[in-house]
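Design a sequence for this backbone.
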């Protein structure tokens, strides 16, 4: 081990210096100011919302007072005037005499006959200029239903002012004789709701009806009355249902406002009182700017002091950074020359000791790696090292050559590794990894397929162990080996094929047939579906063997197997038991007739001529069909009944099917 220089005693530690920097930095103070400013702004915003809600409620109450006066006036006048066309002048005179006593903002009162003719008005009307209200909405609504009707906004005369018209049907002796209407000016209605002009400059009072139209506005009323409000009708109806509250929105004039709203109790109208957000929060924003300016000024001073102090600390730290970078590049022989009496000097001393220790361990590790590489080359295994925290997997060069790549080590991510694993094997691989990482199993072990660069699949046997965990037991590294077991898997598959499949036709043999039949019976008992077993053989096969040889017979059996497979579903099982004996398992059927249809299809599939050794040969098949009976779970019993049905078909003349217990096919088979 290299000699380590002796430490000098500490003179002025890094902690007092960092305290000076911390005291100089006023960031926390600025953050505190910003937090308090934001909190105060939030409180100011809530205060403005509440203030607007109360102002809107007051405006709504004044609107209800005005509408109450209008309602009281119209009901009082309805019982006063004679509804007679000959009394027009008298009605005019009486209404004009009462006009000075009308509530504020009432612009006129009119009396209408049942046919819509005007028979009285509080406003002067030129001769021959009297209106007829028969087609006006307020008149139609008043004549149709009892109670107060309204129409708004409306211009009673071309170029006239916007008004709201309230109308009431006049009934005498249980007969509707006319309508009385009261018009109230909409342009000046907002002033009636704020008679003292107490709102802040830029504030606006708006009235919105249930259809979402503006029917009154304190700013530019002539421009906005009758326009659609900047909200959909669903929102209008929701706020009418709420009754009162506050909101933030942008008006048709593009100004963002904090608004309070209240619903009139007399009419489905909303009163909005809005104040520009900038005006509402002007004072709070000024205080915030002043506070932040003070904080920033203090921060600048603190940063100036911190820069001076940090400069005294940063120089040796920068040198240590260079030293650490050189060590990180693998130059473990390098040693730091930083010498101070502070903790930085202690850090430099520790860094040198660590470099010396790493140099020794690296040398030992290189020797071990060389020995391991030689051992792996002899065993034809590849090495992997999964850095779980870093999400990287290091592979030895053998891992690359296994998949047809270059002979060099590589790194990849777990996500990239999964991309070349066979999809059918991925879940099992991940489950094995999870068990090892969580400690459920002491080792990781899995067999799976990976894609070779030429497109084929290789089988790997992977084994490993978690070699590093953190204090909480979480896995940090998994190291292991991969071995190519493709040849072993191919041998196992060949053994399985010979054990379970017929060598001539490639169909399942008797052993696999028995296994599948037992499974099908169990599934049928659970599902309640129909299960059928077909037992068949080739009619007069012995004669073909005798006349054309066993080679022709084998060729016939191969063709017969292909035709049987083509006549059934992919989920059905076609097996060869022995000689020319075949079976078909049909499961998941809805009714027995489905099985008979398949049996007939098999008989017909065998009739077309076959070419055997250059000659055309006609053959036929006989089929026995047995259905699984309720409560029956014995495969041998089902096979025996299908066999008995087969011989019943043969006795009936062959080239047909029979159903256990021996009912021959209903169709005449030629």
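Sequence:
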């Amino acid at each position: 081990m290299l000699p380590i220089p002796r430490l000098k005693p500490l003179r002025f530690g890094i902690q007092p210096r960092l305290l000076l920097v911390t005291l100089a930095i006023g960031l926390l103070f600025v953050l505190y100011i910003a937090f308090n400013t934001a909190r105060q702004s939030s409180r100011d915003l809530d205060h403005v919302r509440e203030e607007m809600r109360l102002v809107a409620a007051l405006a709504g109450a004044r609107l209800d007072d005005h509408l109450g006066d209008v309602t009281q006036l119209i009901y009082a006048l309805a019982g006063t005037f004679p509804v007679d066309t000959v009394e027009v002048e008298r009605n005019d005179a009486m209404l004009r005499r009462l006009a000075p006593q009308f509530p504020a903002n009432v612009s006129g009162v009119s009396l209408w006959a049942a046919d819509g003719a005007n028979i009285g008005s509080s406003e002067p009307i030129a001769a021959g200029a009297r209106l007829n209200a028969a087609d006006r909405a307020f008149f139609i609504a008043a004549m149709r239903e009892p109670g107060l009707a309204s129409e708004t906004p409306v211009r009673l005369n071309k170029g006239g002012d916007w008004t709201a018209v309230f109308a009431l049907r006049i009934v005498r002796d249980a007969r509707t004789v006319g309508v009385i209407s009261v018009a109230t000016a909409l342009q000046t209605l907002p002033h009636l709701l704020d008679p003292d002009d107490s709102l802040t400059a830029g504030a606006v009072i708006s009235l919105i009806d249930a259809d979402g139209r503006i029917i009154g506005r304190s700013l530019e009323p002539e421009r906005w009355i009758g326009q659609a409000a900047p909200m959909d009708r669903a929102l209008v109806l929701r706020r009418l249902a709420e009754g009162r509250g506050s909101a933030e929105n942008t008006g048709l004039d593009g100004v963002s406002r904090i608004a309070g709203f209240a619903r009139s109790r007399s009419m489905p109208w909303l009163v909005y009182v809005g104040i520009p957000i900038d005006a509402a929060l002007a004072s709070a924003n000024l205080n915030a700017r002043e506070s932040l300016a003070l904080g920033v000024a203090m921060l600048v001073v603190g940063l100036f002091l911190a820069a001076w102090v940090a400069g005294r600390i940063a120089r040796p730290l920068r040198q240590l950074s260079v030293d650490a970078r050189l060590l990180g590049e693998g130059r473990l022989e390098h040693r730091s020359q930083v010498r101070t009496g502070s903790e930085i000097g202690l850090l430099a001393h520790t860094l040198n000791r660590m470099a010396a220790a790493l140099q020794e361990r690296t040398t030992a590790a290189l020797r071990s790696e060389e020995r391991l590489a030689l051992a792996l080359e002899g065993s034809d295994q590849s090495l992997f090292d999964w850095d779980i925290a870093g999400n990287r997997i290091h592979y030895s060069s053998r891992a690359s050559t296994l998949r047809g790549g270059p002979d060099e080590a590589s790194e990849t991510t777990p996500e990239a590794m999964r991309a070349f694993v066979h999809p059918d094997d991925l879940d099992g691989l991940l489950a094995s990894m999870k068990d090892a990482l969580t400690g459920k199993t002491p080792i990781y072990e899995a067999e799976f397929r990976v894609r070779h660069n030429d497109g084929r699949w290789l089988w790997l046997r992977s084994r490993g162990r978690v070699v590093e965990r953190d204090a909480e037991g979480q896995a940090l590294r998994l190291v292991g080996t991969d071995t190519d077991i493709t040849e072993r898997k191919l041998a196992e598959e060949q053994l399985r094929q010979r054990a379970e499949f017929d060598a001539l036709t490639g169909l399942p043999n008797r052993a696999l047939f028995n296994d599948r039949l037992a499974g099908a019976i169990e599934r049928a008992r659970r599902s309640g579906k129909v299960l059928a077993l077909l037992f068949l053989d080739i009619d007069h096969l012995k004669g073909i063997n005798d006349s054309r040889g066993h080679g022709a017979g084998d060729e016939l059996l191969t063709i017969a197997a292909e035709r049987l497979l083509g006549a059934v579903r992919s989920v059905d099982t076609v097996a060869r038991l022995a000689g020319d004996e075949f079976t078909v398992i049909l499961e998941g059927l809805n009714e027995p007739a489905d099985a008979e249809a398949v049996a007939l299809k098999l008989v017909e599939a065998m009739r077309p001529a076959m070419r055997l050794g250059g000659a055309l040969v006609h053959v036929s098949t006989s089929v026995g069909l047995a259905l699984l009976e309720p409560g029956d779970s014995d495969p041998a019993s089902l096979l025996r009944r299908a066999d008995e049905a087969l011989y019943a078909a043969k006795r009936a003349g062959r080239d047909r099917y029979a159903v256990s217990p021996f009912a021959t096919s209903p169709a005449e088979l030629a």
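Confidence is low (pLDDT under 50) at residues 1-5, 662-670.
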